[in-house]
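Lecture 7 notes: from sequence to structure.

We start with a single chain of 132 residues. Read the sequence below before looking at the structure.
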Amino acid sequence: MSETSYAATAAGVRATIGAHTQAQDAGRTDEIVALYTSDAVLEVPGMDSLEGREAIRQAFKGWEPTLPQLHMVTNTVVTPAGEDEATAVSDVVFFQRGESGWAVQITGRYVDTLRQADGKWFFLRRATTYQV
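Now the structure, written as tokens:
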């Protein structure tokens, strides 16, 4: 893969991750779901795997924020796996604002597999782990 192709892949993958993060923090479930393939899988600790857009939609509907929140996604390493697929590993810190201000609620890691279609990147699989 050329440097130009790698740069385009990395930029597209990071843009999709960023769009997901901002939509999640704002409670825009339809925007989140639109970033997944129809056969996507979402893995969250303590839950069965969610398969397909409708299952993912129902989960994010239940997770819509009731307090201000912010996911800080950083240290993303993108690894291309062919022309139309890539993996990305990112660290995440989840903050929520309560009566005493902003506080860290969770730290973890995302391991994402994304697929490109029509020039856009979509989540094929997202696996979340929490760090203690």
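The first helix runs from residue 3 to 26. Keep this in mind for problem set 3.
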